[in-house]
Amino acid sequence: METGIGRRIAYWRDRRGLTQGDFGRLMGQSRRWVQDLEGGHRQTDPRLSVLERAAEVLRIPLERLVSDPTPETPARPLPAEVAALADSLHTPSRSGRIIPVEDLKRRVMFCCQAWASCHYTAAARDLPPVLADAHRTAVASAEAAVLLSRAYQLAASLLYKYGVLARTPAVLAAERALTAAEASGDPVSIGAAARRVARGLIHQQRHTAAADYAATTAATLRNDLEQAGPAGLSTLGMLYLVAAVGATGDGRSSQAVATAAERLDEAGEVADQQGEDGRDFTSFGPTNVALHEVDVLLRLDDAWAAVEAAQRIDPAAVAGLGRERQARHLVTTARASALTRRREDAIRDLLEAERLAPQEVARPSVVRLVGQLLELVPRPGPELRGLAQRCGLPA
């Protein structure tokens, strides 16, 4: 079985809103069998019978699996402000000034607030000069080094949202955030920067390394972070949550389920210590742990359990979180609903996410989800067509 055919099967399975587990059940096979099929490792299967059944399940002509080139979604260009931020990381400005630390803090916090309000392009526009001034100011100030790290952390988190085109500068920003944090000696800053480094490993598909790194960092810094009050507890809890996400990267297995559950439990224990008093724009607390459980279940190919877990969360508690976190959760529940054939629920959640945060819904991965819904819904209504058009999709 050539790998091109496997990729085409994976593409059309995804377009039909099927997980590997769903497709395996329809084919009368296991999820592992589907993994091998899509990876091109099932050389001994009778090719024609497998492909005929796959085409039937996927509702496409057989020739699309045999001869069509693997369809690709064109990469959407980065917004101009985001592209400028990415470019600035490769060509650092030498025009930075030494400024009062309080002025630097005010400017960094403005960028953080723009991020939390999902005004990503506004944050991206202001970050390059902030980073330039922070570099100069941090030379003789540990407090400014913390702010430099915070600005780089924000740059990394923002760039991660824009997928493969921004991945390399995002990883670079995370590494610089960690370097600045270590120079400051502040454990909260070190832990927060390490979380962005772990996220970078996930975006590079190095999931096991990400999970191990985040968990090890949490264990190493735990005493210092617990003594640092709410900011330290928020950082500690978020490290465990990133470790839980990293544990899901190789798909569903008994080990992955157990490890992810253990990390979620550890995060839950920290959240019980802290309550809902999340700091450093993390929204960390019991509700955010519950939201991560939904995400983890979805990543472990259990979309039905993810839907059920989301339904158990108090909507008022979610409404108390930051706008960015609310919108991101709505995108997660939309994915789970699409995979469980609750497409009207998926559309509703995406529209609500757009109301809260239009720039969150304009991200490449969310636009792909909207495109999938267009194909999966037999007669798209005006709400879905309008959303697709606002995402730049033909509808």
Automatic annotation (TrEMBL):
<dbReference type="InterPro" id="IPR010982">
    <property type="entry name" value="Lambda_DNA-bd_dom_sf"/>
</dbReference>
<protein>
    <submittedName>
        <fullName>Helix-turn-helix transcriptional regulator</fullName>
    </submittedName>
</protein>
<dbReference type="Pfam" id="PF13560">
    <property type="entry name" value="HTH_31"/>
</dbReference>
<feature type="domain" description="HTH cro/C1-type">
    <location>
        <begin position="9"/>
        <end position="65"/>
    </location>
</feature>
<dbReference type="InterPro" id="IPR001387">
    <property type="entry name" value="Cro/C1-type_HTH"/>
</dbReference>
